[in-house]
Amino acid sequence: MDAVATTQQGFNQSTVDWRTGDISVDLASLPQYQANAADIDMFRTDGAVLLRGAFADWVESLRDGLQRNLDAPEFYAFPCESTPKCTPGRFFDSYCNWQLIPEYRDFVLTSEAASMAGQFMGSERAQFFHEHAFCKEPGTQRATPWHQDLPYYCVDGTQTASVYVSLDQSPADVAVQFVRGSHLWGKLYYPRVFVDGDSFNTEDGDLVAVPDIDADPDAYDLMAWDLEPGDTIVFDFRILHGTTSGAVTARRRAFSTRWMGDDVTFCTRPGETSPPFPDIDLESGDRMREDWFPVLWERNLL
Ligand SMILES: O=C(O)CCC(=O)C(=O)O
């Protein structure tokens, strides 16, 4: 299998080809999530909303999928180890493996995630971008640096949603946290390398440095929840989120799927994007190609 190389920014860039070809799905046969209006309002104003137990039935299979990724990272795309040598624990993440890992593929193509994302985005359609899986092993003290997802991506737009499924019990002090309302601040921040929190793409004049939230957490309206397996957080690509560096005492896994709504288009950024799609063959402002990023929900199916 192909080797894993490291780029300038420290990402591990697997050359594993994760695209396996045609995705044909009968949209009308997919299950529909029934979002309630209060939750949708909260997502719009706060930028993130917790849906207790929404994917409890998927926890076992997503854990099995993630275990394949953890056991043999080199066989999958973009495996990242963000725990420096000689520090406790393991902080692993990997993305763009939904066509390689059957449990991920099932979730993407047959769960209510597409319908959930479409309704929260207020979109007519939900187009799938990619998945991203995370694992922090007991002892890990490596914080997930505060960041927004949008500046990492080769897309722009306001109708976006990540559907983040917690796969373990995770107390609020080590779970992912969100700065309420920060998706509406009208700012985009430099993306950061998870291993050391360094900013990159600093040549991009549209971006600024992430504020030092840890220096004065009380100055921010933080949303943090004790999570149970299956609890799901839907959040906007523009919201600031991250974790403390508090030690994780029990395994803490999560599986996120990224969704794009009607106003999302391809965007060329001055630096490297993550994931990189070097052969995407699109111009800024183009709709994302549906052969790579399938449309998996349409509102008229509700
Ligand atoms: O679970 C975490 O620590 C980070 C999650 C995250 O950054 C994401 O899903 O975008």
CATH fold annotation: Jelly Rolls
Helix content: 10-25%
Poorly predicted regions are 1-11
Class by helix and strand content?
Answer: alpha+beta
For the record, what is the CATH homologous superfamily label?
q2cbj1_9rhob like domain
Shape: globular
Alpha-carbon Rg, integer:
18 Å
Please summarize the sheet with the most strands. Answer: 8 strands, antiparallel
What share of residues are in beta strands?
Answer: 15-25%
CATH class: Mainly Beta
The figure for the number of domains is: 1
What small molecules does this complex bind? 2-oxoglutaric acid
Named CATH architecture? Sandwich
Distance between the termini: 43 Å
Summed up, the helix count is 4
Average of per-residue pLDDT values:
92
What is the topological layout?
Blueprint: E1 4-6, E2 12-14, H1 37-46, E3 48-51, H2 59-71, E4 80-81, E5 91-95, H3 102-110, H4 113-121, E6 125-136, E7 155-156, E8 160-166, E9 177-179, E10 222-223, E11 232-235, E12 241-242, E13 252-260, E14 265-266, E15 295-298
Antiparallel strand pairs: 1-2, 3-11, 4-5, 5-6, 6-13, 6-15, 7-14, 8-11, 8-13, 9-10, 9-12
2-oxoglutaric acid (AKG) binds next to strand 6, strand 8 and strand 13.
Outline of the structure:
This protein is α+β, with helices and mostly antiparallel strands. 14% of the residues lie in helices and 21% in strands. Residues 1-11 have low confidence and may be disordered.
